[in-house]
Design brief:
Serine Threonine Protein Phosphatase 5, Tetratricopeptide repeat, 84% helix, mainly alpha, 6 helices, 186 residues
């Protein structure tokens, strides 16, 4: 009886393909495996890792039936990954690739809107980078000027001190000259 139960369990597992004997050999099997992996990463919220797996399928298996889905999901995952210009660039690249596929008119319009928004975001990233570069340059220039002003201020203080000493010496010389003049008159 127990033996019969085990035979039924083994037969059921083999027939349902529960994952013990998945076929990952060949391009289609490998692409399917990577798509399932990407899907599970996506469901776990690991969008960056899922995006990388979808991109791997799209790049490695462009002739497979998974290609359109992999391209679309890669674009989407990169666009919802944590903000960075790198992710936005990757999302833009994959949306452009997705536009090259045959899409329904509404879907094509939705993708074009995404592409336009990503294009604007990338332009803004570029402008922000330029602003940071300009701010850094201005900061360096300001620090140089501050150092120059500080050095000039110290030099001015030294010159004022020398001027005070020279005035004191001149006053002493005048006093001596005045005494000599008085002593010669007498």
């Amino acid at each position: 009886m127990r033996r019969t139960l085990w035979i039924f369990v083994a037969a059921g597992l083999a027939l349902t393909g529960c994952g013990l004997f998945q076929n990952t050999s060949g391009p289609v099997g490998r692409a399917g495996y990577l798509m399932r992996l990407a899907d599970s990463l996506e469901h776990e919220g690991a969008f960056q890792k899922a995006a990388a797996e979808y991109a791997t399928v799209a790049e490695g298996f462009p002739e497979s039936s998974y290609y359109p889905t992999a391209v679309r999901r890669a674009a989407l995952m990169f666009s919802i990954s944590p903000y960075s210009a790198k992710n936005d660039s990757a999302a833009y690249r994959w949306y452009i690739e997705y536009l090259s596929l045959s899409l329904s008119k509404p879907e094509r319009e939705n993708v074009r809107v995404s592409v336009e928004l990503l294009h604007r975001i990338l332009l803004l990233h570029g402008q922000i980078t330029q602003m940071y570069t300009a701010a850094d340059s201005l900061s360096v220039l300001t620090k140089r000027q501050d150092l120059s002003i500080t050095a000039d201020s110290h030099r001015m203080q030294e010159l004022e001190f020398q001027l005070q000493n020279a005035q004191a010496e001149l006053k002493k010389i005048k006093e001596i000259d005045l005494r000599l003049s008085k002593s010669m008159l007498h």
